[in-house]
Amino acid sequence: MKLFTCDSCGHAVHFDNRGCVTCGHRLGFNTETLAVHALEPLNDLEWRIHTQPDKAWKFCANAAFDICNWLVPAQSGDPYCIACHHNRIVPVTNTPEGLSRWQRIGQAQRHLFYSLLRWKLPRPTRADDPQGGLVFDFLADEIGPDGNPVPAMTGHEDGLISLRAAEADDATRESIRVAMNEPYRTLLGHFRHEIGHFYWTQLVRDDETLAEARRIFGDERADYAQALQRNYEQGPPADWQERFISTYASCHPAEDFAETWAHNFHIVDTLETARSFGLTVDPVRHDDMQAEVDFDPYNVSDSKRLIDAWVPLSVALNSIQRSMGQPDSYPFVLNQPVMEKLDFINRLIYRAGH
């Protein structure tokens, strides 16, 4: 994620900032420029960008709950921004718990959409494609007949991405991570994984691309229920670390694609952050660990360039985390088969946006 600059005072501002701490201007994210801008009020509902006085904007309707800081053209008949426009079921806002969950989910969703916009990936709505357009349901747990809670399911089916709203609670998400023996589990990770399933249907369509995907990941037509049952009963294959990015990726080709897709997002977005902060990795007497992100990672067709920068950076990030007594930021290993999979996904995304 980039660092941005306040249009009014030039102070650095961040993606989720609502106001500039230096000059006090209200801030909003413009999906046309993909930047955070300082705003000036025109009236109670409309704003203008400090450096672009000729166009009026309004905030996404979810700004009323401090959930979204994205802008919508004032003349638009849609009250919601590009990201929130895809939502169908959202958490309640009349309880502190529901509002807090919605705020955290919205933050992760906007981070996801920043990447989708940077790559210019297609985002058909249900109005565009009633059967497979992208739509989100953020689901509350239910109470079963026995009075016990029934957790909502996170998943994807025909363009519908469902996310268990309780995953926004740190304690709930961490307890699941530990119970599932997962090294990494975040809201943003869920979004990036589930959107991978959606983009399989969007981008892996022609015979040549499909044949290559099946060669690299396996045949996605394999029985999914049987694969999951085998995974839960027998665990991952003994050599999973030599072929997959995670144990979950090893259970079925569709999950392998979605897991690897998510890691491509992790890598590219973190590299953009490193570039924005001018980070350079150059440890003494470790020439193989040198890295400087002097390129736009969202616009690279060669995944080797991404990986060559990512590996030393991720090692440095993990070392910093350990120095703070924290778990590794990136507890994964990029083996050769995974790098081939990342290359396929990077080429797929690059072609879609060019």
Distance between the termini: 21 Å
Strand order of the main beta sheet, please? 3-4-5-6-7
Structural class category: alpha+beta
Q: Radius of gyration, Cα only, in angstroms?
A: 21 Å
What summary fits the major beta sheet?
Answer: 5 strands, antiparallel
What letter string, H or E per element, gives the SSE order?
A: EEEEEEEEHEEEEEHHHHHEEHH
Assign a percent range to the helix content: 25-40%
Uncertain spans, ≥5 residues at pLDDT below 50?
none
How many runs of DSSP E, i.e. beta strands? 15
Topology of this structure?
Blueprint: E1 4-5, E2 12-13, E3 26-30, E4 35-41, E5 47-49, E6 52-59, E7 71-73, E8 87-89, H1 96-119, E9 135-139, E10 142-143, E11 149-150, E12 155-157, E13 160-164, H2 170-179, H3 187-203, H4 207-217, H5 224-234, H6 253-276, E14 280-281, E15 291-292, H7 303-323, H8 336-353
Parallel strand pairs: 8-9, 9-13
Antiparallel strand pairs: 1-2, 3-4, 4-5, 5-6, 6-7, 10-11, 12-13, 14-15
Helix pairs in contact: 1-3, 3-6, 4-8, 6-7, 6-8
Describe the structure.
It is a single chain. With 354 residues, the protein is of the alpha+beta class. It is globular, with a radius of gyration of 21 Å. It contains eight helices and 15 strands.
Summarize the structure.
With 354 residues, this protein is of the alpha+beta class. The protein is built from 8 helices and 15 strands.
Question: What tags apply to this protein structure?
Answer:
38% helix, four-stranded mixed beta sheet, 354 residues
